[in-house]
TrEMBL record:
Belongs to the AHA1 family. Pfam families: AHSA1 (PF08327). Residues 12-134 form the Activator of Hsp90 ATPase homologue 1/2-like C-terminal domain. This is SRPBCC domain-containing protein. Signal peptide: none annotated.
Amino acid sequence: MAKITVSVIINSSIDKVWNQLNNPKDIEQWNQASADWHCMNASNDLKVGGTLKSTMAAKDGSSSFDYEAIYDTIIPNELIKYHLLDGRMVEISFQETTNQVLVTETFDAENQNSEELQKAGWQAILNSFKKHVENN
C-alpha cells in the first residue's frame, strides 16, 4: 500500500496547533477541502483506543462521507497515530520552531481515487487547518 505525505508550516504556538487540531468545535470549522464543503459534525475522544469521527458534506447536499478512526499512539504536541476502520494507517507529526509548527501527515492510500487526488484533498484540508489556526 502506497504512503502519501502532506505537510504545512503554521505560524502559531504548538499548544494552539495541537488544541485546534483536536477540539471538535475547531474540527467542524476547518475540516473541508474547499469552500463548497463543510464539516457537519465532529467528535474526538483523544486517548489510545479513543475514536475520532466527523462527517464532511457538500453544502448543496449532493454527497457526504463519514470519517472514523481509532487512536493507536498519542504523544501530546509531538505525534498522533491512528487507524481508519478499513485498516489504513495515519500518522501526524508536529515539529516546533520559533513561533512555527511543521505539521506532517502520512497516510496509507486507498484504492478508489488516484494518489494525486488523495494527496491534493488531504493537502487542501491541511491548508484549511493552517488558515483556521492563523486566523483564530
